[in-house]
Amino acid sequence: MIVLYSQIKNSSLLSLDEQKNLGQVFDLVLQKSDMSIKGFLARTNSLLPTKKTVSKADIIEISNNAVVVRDDSALVDLDELPQIKQAIKSKLVGINQKVVTKSGKKIGNVYDYTIDSQSMLLTSIYIKSMFSDRIISRTAIISLEGKKITIDDDFEVIKNAQAVPEAA
Fold first, then answer.
1. Angle 19-24-26 from CA coordinates, rounded to 5°
2. Residue 60's pLDDT is what?
3. Cα–Cα distance measured from residue 65 to residue 24, given in angstroms and rounded to the nearest whole number
4. Nearest CA to 30 among 135, 134, 141?
5. Do the beta carbons of residue 39 and residue 94 sit within 8 Å?
6. CB distance 69 to 22 below 8 Å
7. For the domain 98-160, what is the CATH superfamily, name and number?
8. pLDDT for residue 165
9. What is the pTM assigned to this prediction?
């Protein structure tokens, strides 16, 4: 199933074994090398809410309104998952990143993206500019660098191509 980032963010974090709500997802952590989800950042449902991390390996299911893990042992401190901590330090945030073509033309800023819930790979990014909205496939993405995403110039060629007139 393809799920929007905006639907996952602020969704419930549920425990399958304990049949309870463990907290709320407040962000995703992306790995820029393969554009996959490394894990989730969550706030727990406790008297003193704390920020915890859930590794991709502990996730059973992702839906439009919940992320399901086996039990509360999936919630750990960020220091226990160094790969996720490193991905966060690379400042790959996904939302509000500037999108430019390989030749340097600014396309707009990312306002949402989609993820395949089975493979946990980013599938497309939603871009808004002053005059248009666009959806760009992950295949057009060349690199993710901090607050900038570079896409292939061929995307612009395809977008601007004229439709072939029909034969009379």
1. 150
2. 93
3. 10
4. 141
5. no
6. yes
7. PRC-barrel domain (2.30.30.240)
8. 46
9. 0.79
> Residues 6 or more apart from 50 whose CB is under 8 A from it?
43, 44
Instruction: Give the whole-angstrom CA distance, residue 134 versus residue 107.
Output: 9
| Residue 136 and residue 125 in contact, taking contact as beta carbons nearer than 8 Å | yes
Residue 85 token pair: 């901590």
Output the pLDDT for position 101.
92
> In this structure, what token pair is assigned to residue 16?
């399958």
CATH of domain 2-89: 3.90.50.10
- Non-local (6+) Cβ contacts of 89 within 8 A are none
Half-sphere CA count of 146, side-chain side, radius 13 A: 1
Return the H-helix or E-strand segment holding 88. helix 82-89
Average pLDDT per block of 10 residues along the chain, 168 residues long = 92 92 90 85 81 91 92 90 78 77 92 93 92 90 85 64 43
